[in-house]
């Protein structure tokens, strides 16, 4: 049986609707220096893959997943230069970071283990549900829920905020 | 949502940069002209649209008919814009552009593709005469419908086709636009 042709919207509609979300997420995941690079790479990958998509559903989630993968790639590529695995992956004290809001929160998020940091960022900055977070992290929604709740618990302790 | 969660959703930074792209399969721009805003699009160097239709409708049609990789890339339309501006200023009588009728139906292709042959600058013809030219003498009405949905307006001069009574009849860009184009051609 011939597969029904997928009716994809014009790519420009995706760019207009989601470029800010992708840019925001990329910076949150990869920091002020690499973030813009990650966003640009994510869009290039999406542009290449777009005509081959077999579904026009959840395009925003698809874009944010690509962004997360690009952030992981750049994070892994940078890793050998950093002796300590648990060092904050993002410099939040450089000049680029000067006008970033909520530095305490950023510092605390950046100190989380990588999977937790990605999960909590995808969930709240990316505004993805646990299915979306799970897809981006190649895991299950239940695992995503655990990663996010562990991350929130650590952040509460670090920032000294009450469980409200 | 807790306070902490809402703080996380606001984790953002100023000066976000929009992405840049290689050449799209379909590049388009919106071009303001004396006869209204035209959506101009090219695919592989050929003009696929010069239309009074709105951006969302036209780009969706292009995504389906040509490729979903449709992007607003004005630079790819520089030559088309220049030729249109010259034409609309009365300084150009023919377009040196290749056209792709991807948005047209098979019948529209028959009607539209030879329009520059069956019409000439500064002269009008009628729907009936054009129907005769394409060997469908009884299809004047269908010819009118095909011209009315011309996806490559101005470049394919459907404005030169009028009713046998001499009435302008209709135009996608409105009768004022049709009148403007016919006046322009009769003066130049």
Automatic annotation (TrEMBL), chain A:
<dbReference type="InterPro" id="IPR007627">
    <property type="entry name" value="RNA_pol_sigma70_r2"/>
</dbReference>
<keyword id="KW-0805">Transcription regulation</keyword>
<keyword id="KW-0731">Sigma factor</keyword>
<dbReference type="InterPro" id="IPR036388">
    <property type="entry name" value="WH-like_DNA-bd_sf"/>
</dbReference>
<dbReference type="InterPro" id="IPR039425">
    <property type="entry name" value="RNA_pol_sigma-70-like"/>
</dbReference>
<dbReference type="Pfam" id="PF08281">
    <property type="entry name" value="Sigma70_r4_2"/>
</dbReference>
<dbReference type="GO" id="GO:0003677">
    <property type="term" value="F:DNA binding"/>
</dbReference>
<dbReference type="InterPro" id="IPR013324">
    <property type="entry name" value="RNA_pol_sigma_r3/r4-like"/>
</dbReference>
<keyword id="KW-0804">Transcription</keyword>
<dbReference type="InterPro" id="IPR013249">
    <property type="entry name" value="RNA_pol_sigma70_r4_t2"/>
</dbReference>
<dbReference type="Pfam" id="PF04542">
    <property type="entry name" value="Sigma70_r2"/>
</dbReference>
<feature type="domain" description="RNA polymerase sigma-70 region 2">
    <location>
        <begin position="14"/>
        <end position="79"/>
    </location>
</feature>
<dbReference type="GO" id="GO:0016987">
    <property type="term" value="F:sigma factor activity"/>
</dbReference>
<feature type="domain" description="RNA polymerase sigma factor 70 region 4 type 2">
    <location>
        <begin position="105"/>
        <end position="155"/>
    </location>
</feature>
<dbReference type="GO" id="GO:0006352">
    <property type="term" value="P:DNA-templated transcription initiation"/>
</dbReference>
<comment type="similarity">
    <text>Belongs to the sigma-70 factor family. ECF subfamily.</text>
</comment>
<keyword id="KW-0238">DNA-binding</keyword>
<dbReference type="InterPro" id="IPR014284">
    <property type="entry name" value="RNA_pol_sigma-70_dom"/>
</dbReference>
<protein>
    <submittedName>
        <fullName>RNA polymerase sigma factor (Sigma-70 family)</fullName>
    </submittedName>
</protein>
<dbReference type="InterPro" id="IPR013325">
    <property type="entry name" value="RNA_pol_sigma_r2"/>
</dbReference>
UniProtKB/TrEMBL annotation, chain B:
<feature type="domain" description="Methylated-DNA-[protein]-cysteine S-methyltransferase DNA binding">
    <location>
        <begin position="118"/>
        <end position="186"/>
    </location>
</feature>
<keyword id="KW-0227">DNA damage</keyword>
<dbReference type="InterPro" id="IPR008332">
    <property type="entry name" value="MethylG_MeTrfase_N"/>
</dbReference>
<feature type="domain" description="Methylguanine DNA methyltransferase ribonuclease-like">
    <location>
        <begin position="27"/>
        <end position="101"/>
    </location>
</feature>
<dbReference type="Pfam" id="PF02870">
    <property type="entry name" value="Methyltransf_1N"/>
</dbReference>
<keyword id="KW-0489">Methyltransferase</keyword>
<dbReference type="GO" id="GO:0032259">
    <property type="term" value="P:methylation"/>
</dbReference>
<keyword id="KW-0808">Transferase</keyword>
<dbReference type="Pfam" id="PF01035">
    <property type="entry name" value="DNA_binding_1"/>
</dbReference>
<keyword id="KW-0234">DNA repair</keyword>
<dbReference type="InterPro" id="IPR014048">
    <property type="entry name" value="MethylDNA_cys_MeTrfase_DNA-bd"/>
</dbReference>
<comment type="similarity">
    <text>Belongs to the MGMT family.</text>
</comment>
<protein>
    <recommendedName>
        <fullName>methylated-DNA--[protein]-cysteine S-methyltransferase</fullName>
        <ecNumber>2.1.1.63</ecNumber>
    </recommendedName>
</protein>
<dbReference type="GO" id="GO:0003908">
    <property type="term" value="F:methylated-DNA-[protein]-cysteine S-methyltransferase activity"/>
</dbReference>
<dbReference type="InterPro" id="IPR036217">
    <property type="entry name" value="MethylDNA_cys_MeTrfase_DNAb"/>
</dbReference>
<dbReference type="GO" id="GO:0006281">
    <property type="term" value="P:DNA repair"/>
</dbReference>
<dbReference type="InterPro" id="IPR036388">
    <property type="entry name" value="WH-like_DNA-bd_sf"/>
</dbReference>
<dbReference type="InterPro" id="IPR001497">
    <property type="entry name" value="MethylDNA_cys_MeTrfase_AS"/>
</dbReference>
<dbReference type="InterPro" id="IPR036631">
    <property type="entry name" value="MGMT_N_sf"/>
</dbReference>
């Amino acid at each position: 049986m011939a597969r029904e042709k997928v009716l994809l919207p014009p790519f420009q509609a995706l760019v207009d609707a989601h470029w800010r979300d992708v840019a925001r997420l990329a910076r949150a995941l990869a920091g002020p220096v690499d973030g813009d690079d990650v966003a640009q790479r994510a869009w290039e990958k999406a542009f290449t893959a777009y005509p081959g998509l077999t579904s026009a559903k959840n395009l925003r989630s698809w874009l944010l997943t690509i962004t997360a993968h690009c952030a992981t790639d750049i994070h892994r590529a940078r890793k050998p230069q950093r002796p300590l695995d648990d060092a904050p992956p993002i410099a939040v004290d450089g000049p680029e970071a000067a006008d970033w809001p909520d530095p305490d929160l950023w510092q605390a998020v950046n100190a989380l283990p990588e999977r937790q940091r990605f999960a909590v960022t995808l969930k709240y900055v990316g505004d993805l549900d646990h299915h979306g977070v799970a897809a981006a992290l190649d895991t299950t929604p239940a695992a995503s829920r655990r990663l996010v709740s562990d991350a929130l618990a650590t952040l509460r302790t670090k920032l000294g905020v009450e469980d409200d | 949502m807790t306070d902490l969660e809402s703080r996380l959703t606001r984790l953002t930074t100023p000066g976000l940069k929009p992405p840049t792209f290689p050449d799209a399969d379909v590049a388009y721009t919106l071009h303001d002209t004396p006869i209204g805003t035209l959506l101009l699009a090219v695919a592989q160097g050929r003009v696929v649209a010069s239309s009074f239709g709105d951006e969302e409708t036209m780009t969706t049609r292009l995504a389906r008919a040509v490729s979903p990789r449709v992007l607003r890339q004005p630079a790819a339309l520089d030559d088309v814009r220049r030729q249109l501006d010259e034409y609309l200023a009365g300084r150009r009588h023919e377009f040196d552009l290749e056209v792709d009728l991807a948005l047209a139906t098979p019948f529209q292709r028959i009607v539209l593709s030879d329009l520059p042959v069956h019409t000439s600058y500064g002269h009008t013809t009628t729907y009936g005469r054009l129907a005769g030219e394409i060997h469908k003498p009884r299809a004047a009405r269908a010819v009118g419908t095909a011209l009315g949905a011309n996806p490559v307006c101005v470049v394919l001069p459907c404005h030169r086709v009028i009713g046998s009574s001499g009435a302008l009849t209709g135009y996608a860009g409105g009768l004022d636009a049709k009148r403007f184009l016919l006046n322009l051609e009769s003066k130049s």
